[in-house]
Write a structure and sequence with these properties.
Elements lengths: L5 H15 L4 H61 L9 H18 L9 H18 L5 H11 L1
């Protein structure tokens, strides 16, 4: 590291004995050793903090890539869900069409106000969004064929 040979080391010892004295030399050597140990510990800590920073940045990049891939995979499913949620026109109108329009409006309102997931990790937030989509899909029941006809007769 410092490339000190035996002759230079001997010269340093002689200079230390002359200036410090043989009585205080062990105390000075102990103090110098403590400072060297502190400097080495600080260098190790500095190096480990840089390694941790590099690992975290790599993890952040991987998380971004995974979320981008999830978005690409989920988009066809979202398009299919939108197609399923479109109201079906039965006949020229009546209660069935009104119910379909009302359920479509309700679904749009639920999609417009998603749950606030700002304090959660990306994976948990995605799971909540998927659960909301499944729940919204499970609660919407299409009107039965006979139900629209009965409502129309009662209104006449």
């Amino acid at each position: 590291m410092f490339d000190i040979g035996w002759s230079e080391l001997l010269a340093l010892v002689v200079i230390a004995i002359v200036f410090v004295g043989p009585k205080d030399l062990p105390r000075m050597m102990r103090t110098a050793g403590q400072y060297v140990a502190k400097v080495r510990a600080m260098a190790r800590e500095f190096q480990s903090s840089f390694e941790n920073l590099a690992r975290e940045s790599e993890l952040d990049e991987l998380r971004k890539e995974v979320s981008a891939l999830k978005g690409q995979v989920a988009e066809p499913m979202r398009a299919l869900q939108r197609e399923i949620d479109k109201p079906v026109k039965i006949g020229g109108g009546g209660a069935g069409a009104e119910a379909a329009v009302a359920s479509a409006a309700k679904a749009e309102e639920e999609r417009a106000a998603p749950l606030d997931t700002s304090g959660l990790s990306d994976g948990i937030a995605d799971s909540i969004r998927e659960a909301e989509a499944v729940e919204a899909f499970g609660h919407e029941a299409p009107p039965s064929v006979g139900q629209g006809a009965q409502t129309k007769r009662e209104g006449e």
